[in-house]
């Protein structure tokens, strides 16, 4: 097994030459291949949460988290869910019923029993060396090379053993790996055969202790007998080695100092089944599914770091990702997965999600059913529907290897997409989007014969506008021998789409001129009114401190700054004077005299504005 196990860790467009293509470039949210074949690491179909939620069943309890332990009991058809501080029991398949909460106080005897689980009979450790430790522990590197990227993926994330049914055939190990190189986000899937692992464990040991020979294989003459790391067999019992307690100390010392084998374990066929650089896989489960022809295919379900589920089928020597399913409304890692009959159970931080693995009804047409390459699903000619076959062959068609739609499906009525008329300007750069439903489709463009400046892109076709570029464009995509037009456009000059006349231009100019004159007049009027109010406030402020606007009395200082904003009391005076009909339009006269027969006094800021006038407010 590997020495280390760890958990992993606006496309710019061309500058538009005019505002018209700028509007068109906003359509670049569509993405899809425009030519050639896409590697099988790219999911053929991607379903967002809005489309996938219709055939997902969720289980969650408020204020309960970490649904990371899933245990299936096939005999009682029960699922035991281990969350934080709580265990739930659910009947399978669950459909929203109330769960049964289990309170389990674990005795210390059970704890000790669990710690002893897995110890082989006879492996009791040594008397002096490796006391109460494993003596049959051997390590070998599992390598999942990535020849496309030049780096090996050596950090094991998860592994599943796919055992054949009825004891026929050889089991296979499927493991997902990540790269140990910092900054290299590589995930790979490799398969390993038990005989290859056994050959490496029976091979030479690697020297780790001595400086002179470190990293070199240990010579066969230096390996003691009985061979270190082996289980106690009947032959060893005949040699008076009834358990590991009777092994010679040199054997135990050797296995303590040489736990690593010299050669790594390479995957079956010497190459990975799947390598991806934009997806981080964390969990994997697998099962073997018979097709309509009787041939069995290995189907893998890969859980990602952001809460997606990839369904992949091994076809030949490659693992092809056929479906990408968003499991949760918010991205979160997939922590655990279990298969039960035709259901996949996925545990995460916030919920347990149940996925139907035989949901063939989502495939609406014969071409979709054949191109899905699901070994469970076949097209029924009699029912005109995609159904889950049970070994029956009458009226069913399926093709996992080549998905030849043209020969298996009747000719379906072609869809005529809407032709979008695109106004353009000379020398502009325009991107015409093309987004087929399948990422594996091979797409070609049909364009006018006079166009010369074309640049195929991943998300469409970039056209440099010239007189010869005007006309019709069509994006035709083909998969499995069936072709259809996905997108159609018609490029026209911008003047042909509602070009303004000279009368409209002159009218717009005159309207703009009069609008400008009106705005200027209104601005001048507002400025004049503001200056008039400012002068009136200055008069009021100077009168309050007893100043003559014409002559500065001795002992006073000129007021060169704007007066402070009037207080609520300052606003009483204009109202009182207006009621007596004095002043100028309700504002105070240049000289403010006290109308009361009290002795004359100078009013200071903050003094009452009216001392005996009943009209003051």
TrEMBL record:
Lineage of the organism: Eukaryota, Metazoa, Chordata, Craniata, Vertebrata
Where is it found, in Gene Ontology cellular component terms?
A: plasma membrane
Return the InterPro entries for the record.
Answer: Plexin_repeat (IPR002165), PSI (IPR016201), Sema4F_C (IPR045791), Semap_dom (IPR001627), Semap_dom_sf (IPR036352), Semaphorin (IPR027231), WD40/YVTN_repeat-like_dom_sf (IPR015943)
Q: Where does the UniProt annotation locate this protein? A: Membrane
The leader peptide range reads 1-36
Q: Name one GO biological process term.
A: semaphorin-plexin signaling pathway
Indicate the principal place this protein occupies in or around the cell: membrane
The protein's name in its UniProt record: Ssemaphorin 4F
UniProt cross-references to SUPFAM superfamilies, sorted A to Z: Plexin repeat, Sema domain
State a single Gene Ontology molecular function. Answer: chemorepellent activity
The segment(s) forming the Sema domain are 1-357
Asked if the record carries the keyword Transport, the reply is no
- Asked if the Swiss-Prot or TrEMBL record annotates the protein with the keyword Transcription regulation, the reply is no
One Pfam match, given by its short name, reads PSI
Segments for region (Disordered): 551-572
Which spans are transmembrane here? 502-527
Give UniProt keywords alphabetically: Developmental protein, Differentiation, Disulfide bond, Glycoprotein, Membrane, Neurogenesis, Signal, Transmembrane, Transmembrane helix
